[in-house]
Amino acid sequence: MNTLMNILWFIFCGFWQMIGWALAGCLWSITIVGLPVGIQCFKFAGFCAMPFGHQIVYGGGTGSFLLNLIWIFISGIPLALSALANGAILCLSIIGIPLGLQCFKFAKLAFMPFGTRVM
């Protein structure tokens, strides 16, 4: 079932969210200081391609919190808004509800990517 959901996810919104995370990673990777942030963006871009069957675990400390604050204002808001828009559109149909709920998880991830693990 996860394979089918991952295929549907990639077709309907995973590809576009993957592009968004990869673009954010490219922009952050321009400077040496932003390179660790860019690497994290690329990890989540790969996760955006096939998220079903994985669990997101939030955690982190003070460093993650401060980096998340900087992230929200630079890249987090546009990624979260795009995930929320995708989720709202997908939830209009009964078949799209599981995909829409996954989009809402990515909206939360867009606000707190640092200190987060994907299992």
Describe the protein in words.
- The chain contains 4 helices and 2 strands, in the order H-H-E-H-H-E.
- The chain has one domain (2-118).
- Strands 1-2 form a two-stranded antiparallel sheet.
- It has helices at residues 2-28, 35-49, 62-90, 97-111; strands spanning 56-58, 116-118.
- The chain has 119 residues and is mostly helical.
- It is globular, with a radius of gyration of 14 Å.
- The mean pLDDT is 91.
- Helix 1 packs across helix 3 (62-90) and helix 3 (62-90) runs antiparallel to helix 4.
**Main sheet makeup:** 2 strands, antiparallel
In round numbers, the mean pLDDT is: 91
Indicate the multimeric state: single chain
Shape: globular
Cα end-to-end separation: 18 Å
How many E strands?
2
Task: Tell me the helix content.
Answer: over 70%
Number of domains: 1
Helix-strand pattern = HHEHHE
Determine Rg (CA atoms, Å): 14 Å
Going by helix content, strand content and strand pairing, the class is: mainly alpha
Percent of residues in β-strands: 5-15%
Strand order of the largest sheet: 1-2
